[in-house]
Amino acid sequence: MVPLDWYLILSATVFMIGVFGFLTRRNIIIMFLSIELMLNAVNISLLSFSHYMQDMRGQILAFFVIAVAAAEAAIGLAIIIALFKNKATVHVDEMNEMKG
Amino acid sequence: MIQQLFFAYFSAAIILLSVLVITRRNPVHSVMWMLLLFFHLAGLYLFLGAEFIAAIQVIVYAGAILVLFLFVVLLLNLREELKTNRFITSWPVSLIICAGILLLIISSLRDFLLGPIGKYSVEYLRKETNTVALGKVLYTEFLLPFEIASLVLLVAIIGAIVLAKRRVKSH
Question: What is the ipTM metric for this complex?
Fold first, then answer.
């Protein structure tokens, strides 16, 4: 039997890799993939809690996380396309039109 | 023993693939590694007895979200991006902060206590099957959140079309 802590450590590691990618990359698509990575890390811990507590609610929450991730990806990629039409770049440091 | 080996392979692959996702210069390569990562995650979910979630991980994440990502990456002309720096110049600071938070989380696990055990044991799920049990909880206890999720998806569809469509000159 694999202990629950191993799953939680795996989940925390993947989450922190996602945070690191979000903080250090400036390509907006990779930043988006980092957010997906973080959402998946949360899913790992929700499902491991669900399994070890023998409760269905963890799986329901993971289900909702996947639904929200789908909505977020659709909206975010539409925003990226709209930005690319205006600026022809996906580098976030060059998107400073709203600076006073 | 075989369980530990299984978990060791999947966790090593997941961590390696997530590092590959955030370090590739070309976004197409990142998306491809992400695809492999999602299949490994689905395998881990099967190991945790969540068959339905593993299936929608493959169908929704790998089948829909990543194809959307791939479409957008291929739609944009990213030749300029390949020449720029991969990370920001102060990336070691971020690495130290992330490693510190990770150590903090791992050290707090020692004081973690599991809550009361529910009724969905492995034997119960073997009799009932995972999808039936999930559906029963989803359509009774979580009916309102389920409806709200459908509304969220509807707003996302409309918003994506409004944001990404070509502006048509009206006159």
Answer: 0.90
